[in-house]
Amino acid sequence: MVASSSSAASSRWPKKHQVFVGFRGEDTRNNFTSHLHAALCRNKVETYIDNRLEKGGELWPLLDVAIEDSTLFLVIFSENFASSTWCLEELAKILECTKDQGHVMPVFSMVEPCTCQEADWEL
């Protein structure tokens, strides 16, 4: 992926997208995420979802701008989300963009969220 630089999109208001949906495609694209996206559209929420993009370095600039041009981020954590460097890069960009403004809302799909205290760690 290409390292991003600040762009005009990051300072534009109002933002183009009310919601950016980040997810692991093979885990949730054709079930939870598609239903969520449909519900957002029915309620006239301007949503960015990369449902037609294939992974690749040349696509990162498009996602980079879409992230910078969004206000709320729904990150769908699924079983294989953390094993995808693509998803983790996207999440890092989202967190970078929300330092000054914007909000991230985690959504857990088919996984049980837990805290470090609850986890069964072997040292």
Q: How do the strands and helices of this protein lay out in sequence?
A:
Layout: H1 8-11, E1 17-22, H2 25-28, H3 32-42, E2 47-48, H4 60-68, E3 70-77, H5 85-97, E4 103-108
Helix pairs in contact: 4-5
Main beta sheet strand tally, sense and closure: 4 strands, parallel
Distance between the termini: 33 Å
Low-confidence stretches: 1-10
Question: How much helical structure, as a percent, in the residues?
Answer: 25-40%
How would you write the strand order of the largest sheet? 2-1-3-4
CATH superfamily: Toll/interleukin-1 receptor homology (TIR) domain
Overall spatial form:
globular
Summarize the helix and strand pattern as letters.
HEHHEHEHE
Whole-number count of domains: 1
Task: Output the keywords.
Rossmann fold; 4-stranded parallel beta sheet; 18% strand
Kindly describe this structure:
This protein has 123 residues and is of the alpha/beta class. The chain has a single domain (15-108), classed as Toll/interleukin-1 receptor homology (TIR) domain (Rossmann fold). It contains 5 helices and 4 strands, in the order H-E-H-H-E-H-E-H-E. Strands 2-1-3-4 form a 4-stranded parallel sheet, with helices on both faces. Helix 4 packs parallel to helix 5 (85-97). Residues 1-10 have low confidence and may be disordered.
Nutshell version of this structure?
The chain has 123 residues and is an alpha/beta fold. The protein has five helices and four strands, in the order αβααβαβαβ.
